[in-house]
Design a protein that fits this description.
Length: about 280
């Protein structure tokens, strides 16, 4: 038997093993309480239900789940609306290549670099954001020191960084739409707004769902950008579930807590993926 035939046979088993073994360890950590107990590293059987209840009644987990929900939904709405607006602008512009070049800039910047740039801009004394607000007559905003404004900041940064990605998906869908419905609508005297509302948006629905799918998965597992920007603070106000997994693992050294949080995050992601898939199939 040739080597490539052997590899074709064993490759699926290897892939399944690489996926199933970490998942098995994750489930195992949700059953046992693993971590430092009274200064000593121990693994104690506590049961899945006890670990679930311990995590879910924790105020930190509840706050993190709330922040994750607000952050995810707000970013998705803003990025889809701005992406559609940019599609409308670029589609009716003479300088499409220039627009595409400009919009690509934010995507190619690494997340850590984006976080450091915006963190410097948000500094209270020397930051560009407060300088611009002072020119408009507003008081300095504690972007990094106030829980509310820190939440607003991470939404702004994520939207600035990834709206162009959403735009590219929507624009690719837009330019692939059939021209016949648009030509018929123009012959019937429909306005541009009516064409967008009654033809463009319904035809773009599958593409919008694809953009929502990719961005939802990315937002739920966001880490380097948010961590370098706020480190989950202040007062855990920007600690989404993915960051909570890191904090529970490496700072609290409570691996069962981290495993339950990670499993919850995975279930949420799978549920959303199935939901978007059903919408796309319609």
């Amino acid at each position: 038997m040739k080597l490539h035939n052997v590899l074709a046979i064993i490759a699926p088993a290897i892939v399944i093993g690489l996926i199933s073994y970490p998942f098995f360890l994750l489930i195992q950590m949700t059953i046992y309480s693993t971590g430092f107990i009274k200064g000593e590293f121990k693994t104690v059987y506590t049961g899945f239900l006890n670990n679930i209840l311990r995590v879910y009644i924790d105020p930190l987990f509840q706050m993190s789940a709330k922040v994750t929900l607000i952050f995810t939904l707000t970013c998705l709405v803003l990025q889809i609306l701005l992406g559609l607006f940019l599609v409308m602008v670029v589609a009716n512009s003479r300088f499409k290549r220039l627009w595409l070049s400009i919009l690509m800039i934010s995507i190619i910047i690494p997340p850590v670099s984006v976080a450091l740039i915006w963190r410097f801009m948000a500094y209270p004394e020397i930051g560009l954001l407060n300088y611009l607000s002072s020119l408009l007559g507003f008081k300095a905003i504690p972007w990094l020191g106030d829980p509310f404004w820190a939440t607003i900041l991470i939404i702004i940064v994520d939207t600035w960084h990834w709206t162009s990605f959403v735009f590219l998906i929507l624009y690719a869908g837009y330019i692939s739409l059939p021209s016949a419905p648009f030509e018929a609508a123009k012959v019937d005297g429909a306005s541009g707004l009516q064409i967008w509302k009654n033809i463009t948006l319904p035809l773009l629905k599958p593409t919008i769902m694809v953009a929502l799918f990719f961005r939802t998965v990315d937002i739920l597992q966001a880490f380097p950008e948010l961590w370098q920007l706020t480190f989950g603070g202040p007062k855990f106000a920007t600690t989404i579930l993915n960051i909570l997994v890191y904090i529970a693992t490496f700072q609290l050294m409570d691996w069962s807590y981290a495993a339950v949080t990670a499993l919850t995050l995975m279930i949420i992601a799978i549920g959303l993926v199935i939901t978007f898939y059903k919408f796309i199939r319609r």
